[in-house]
Amino acid sequence: MTGALLIFPCLALLCAPALWIVLGRPRILTLDSAQPSPPSSISVIIPARNEEINIGNLLSSINAQCTAPLEVIVVNDGSTDRTSMIAQDHGALVIDAKPLPQDWKGKPWACQQGVDAAKGSSYLFLDADTSLSKNAISILGALTKKSKKVYSICPYHKIKKPYEQLSSFFNVLMLAGSNAFKLKDANKPALFGQCMLISREHYLQSGGHAAVKDKVLENFHLSAI
């Protein structure tokens, strides 16, 4: 069984250099290569549904930031557990999602409501099962000062159980699928939905989540706009 669990991680490690050679060097900016700056006006938006196991960890990491964001908005998307209570206990502004319109998917609708309530000049969309290093907001603020564009951050995946190693193969595929490499469509990269930073100006110009309201993988479709 252990041998079987090692197959996919090994394949992923073998595939990664091959992708590098065949597709070219990935156009990736590491957070450590960016210089922290004074705080920018970042609104953190977290769509959450039944995330009581994860939401506290994420919000604790946000509260521990060297540079605090302007605000933290949790859109409670019909949770039946303690998600809303935990978010409030951590100081987040909790918004209960309105009934889902017929032509919208759940996550785009939740994100859109977060944007409607946000006051920042940039929006940082985070999945509830992520967490931030303590200087993340400061570094992301530096990126917004550098360019009013969209930044997609590939999260580091912590593996706690042996079977979770299987996911490494799919992480490599996700990276390749994001067009992070120099290919024909290198000017049309996809976005990692777990962590996206976008200026309000660019968001409004692109049509935001309203433009991808009926898409399941809204991050991929949002990047194409």
Descriptive notes:
The protein is α/β, with parallel strands linked by helices and about 220 residues long. The protein has 2 domains: about 1-30 and about 165-185, no CATH class; about 35-155 and about 190-225, Alpha-Beta Complex (Spore Coat Polysaccharide Biosynthesis Protein SpsA, Chain A). Helices cover about 40% and strands about 15% of the residues. The protein contains 8 helices and 6 strands. It has helices at about 1-25, 55-65, 85-90, 105-115, 135-145, 165-175, 200-205, 220-225, and strands at about 40-50, 70-75, 95, 120-125, 150, 195-200. Strands 3-2-1-4-6-5 form a 6-stranded mixed sheet, sandwiched between helices. Strand 2, helix 3 and strand 3 form a beta-alpha-beta unit. The longest helix is centred in the first third of the chain and has 22 residues, at about 1-25. The chain is globular, with a radius of gyration of 18 Å. The model is unreliable at about 1-10 and about 10-30 (pLDDT under 50).
Q: What's the gist of this structure?
A:
The protein has 225 residues and is an alpha/beta fold.
Summarize this structure as a short list of keywords or feature phrases.
8 helices, six-stranded mixed β-sheet, Spore Coat Polysaccharide Biosynthesis Protein SpsA, Chain A, 6 strands, disordered N terminus, about 15% strand, 2 domains, about 220 residues, alpha/beta, single chain
How would you summarize the topology of this molecule?
Blueprint: H1 2-23, E1 42-48, H2 55-63, E2 71-76, H3 83-89, E3 93-96, H4 106-117, E4 122-126, H5 136-146, E5 150-152, H6 167-177, E6 195-199, H7 200-206, H8 218-223
Parallel strand pairs: 1-2, 1-4, 2-3
Antiparallel strand pairs: 4-6, 5-6
